[in-house]
Amino acid sequence: MTDTTPSTRLSTKHLLGIRDLTKADIELIFSTADGFSSMLQGRIRKVPTLRDTTVANIFFENSTRTRISFELAEKRLSADIVNFSASSSSVKKGETLLDTVQNILAMKVDMVVMRHPAPGAHQFLAQHIPANIINAGDGTHEHPTQALLDAFSMRQRFEKLAGKRVVIIGDILHSRVALSNIFCLQKLGAKVAVCGPPSLIPFHLPKLGVKVFDQLDDALAWADIANVLRIQLERQDIKFFPSLREYHNLYGLTRERLAKHDKDILIMHPGPINRGVEISSAVADDPEQSVILQQVENGVAVRMAVLYLLGASNPE
Fold first, then answer.
1. Do 137 and 239 have their domain in common?
2. Per the domain annotation, does 39 fall within a domain?
3. What is the domain extent for residue 242?
4. pTM here?
5. pLDDT at 242
């Protein structure tokens, strides 16, 4: 007889990327986040779940929203927190990634939340240290908790994502959010497309079952949900399009462009927003169609769920 009892533990000790999660893992994270989301709406906003657990936030790249969201999630779970910034550390003196983390672990750290510019850095750490590793972004590879909170926000509006059409618009080539979103949404049964200048669309995406649009109006006619990404100029060492003005004219999401389509399209953006470039203020701030601020709020609940579930994977 097959056991159909829902699992209360993740199938993995780490969150290195969405590809390492099963659909059951994702659904468990969402159901756990539902509880934390309800808690955060009430008067009691802190629980002792991770008391006596030390979490190190190690960021080798600048971050505002992700870092604050993780820190708040950790505090809501009563964890002890160690914050580490590469710009003010021995990394500047030549210390290796492994030496840095081993020194932090010598201080009895249980979990590591890390952002690093090198794809695969988290897998390397997971092979060498005993702590739980959470990927807060590795280069242009993955950003799993952003994908989870994006899908969680979609699920709040639509309940089930199976069959829903999601188009990811913008700088796909330099985005870690895009790849994680593609993996996560496909595991949940959604149909995924991308749209942007051909120079910013990786050639391998059709092999992943992703539909590619080069005209924004065609993409919006197809989509139920539009997740808009910013142009990552800091990662571009050459010009991928003539100007920001031309980009906005061709791929900027505006109220006028949305009005061409006789349907409500859910608007999302992982931030930071370049207003007037990839999205207009009128669309970003629309209280009916946009869930951008809800994404920020959901980030805390989803990251609380990830921290809680990974913490539960450790032996007493």
1. no
2. yes
3. 144-292
4. 0.92
5. 52
Q: In this structure, are 139 and 182 located in the same domain?
A: no
Rounded-to-integer distance, Cα 259 and Cα 311, Å: 47
Consecutive 10-residue averages of pLDDT for the chain (316 residues): 59 95 97 95 88 93 90 97 72 69 84 92 89 92 96 94 97 91 98 94 93 96 96 53 78 94 94 90 95 96 98 68
Report the pLDDT value the prediction gives residue 34, as an integer from 0 to 100.
Answer: 97
In Å, how far are 72, 166, 229, 256 from 296, measured between CA atoms? Answer: 12, 19, 15, 26
Contact between 124 and 101 (Cβ < 8 Å): no
Q: Which two tokens stand for residue 64?
A: 């505002």
Q: Quick check: 254 and 265 in contact, CB under 8 A? A: no
- Number of domains making up the chain: 2
Predicted confidence at residue 235, as pLDDT, reads 47
Q: Does residue 206 share a domain with residue 122?
A: no
In angstroms, what CA-CA distances link 107 with 15, 70, 80, 111, 167? 22, 20, 12, 12, 44
Say whether both 156 and 288 belong to one domain. yes
Residue 213 is given by DSSP the state E
Q: Is 159 left (phi over 0), alpha (psi -120 to 50) or beta?
A: left
CATH of the domain at 183: 3.40.50.1370
Residues 202, 86 within the same domain: no
What are the distances in angstroms from CA 252 to CA 85, 92, 216, 248?
Answer: 34, 39, 8, 4
DSSP string covering 228-242: E----GGG-SS-SSS
